[in-house]
């Protein structure tokens, strides 16, 4: 665990990659939610 914390917050490259990974997950889940809402039958 200490290795991962040092990898994430010890250097700017690790922090930047964590930001990129989490924003990618956020964008993908937003697009998935949008697709589910659009494909749901309209009442």
UniProtKB/TrEMBL annotation:
Transmembrane ranges?
Answer: 12-36
Matches recorded under InterPro entries: DUF3149
Keywords of this entry: Membrane, Transmembrane, Transmembrane helix
Output this protein's name.
DUF3149 domain-containing protein
């Amino acid at each position: 665990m200490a290795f991962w914390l040092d990898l994430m917050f010890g250097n700017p490259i690790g922090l930047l990659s964590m930001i990129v990974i989490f924003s990618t997950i956020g964008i993908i889940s937003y697009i998935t939610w949008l697709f589910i809402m659009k494909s749901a039958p309209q009442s």
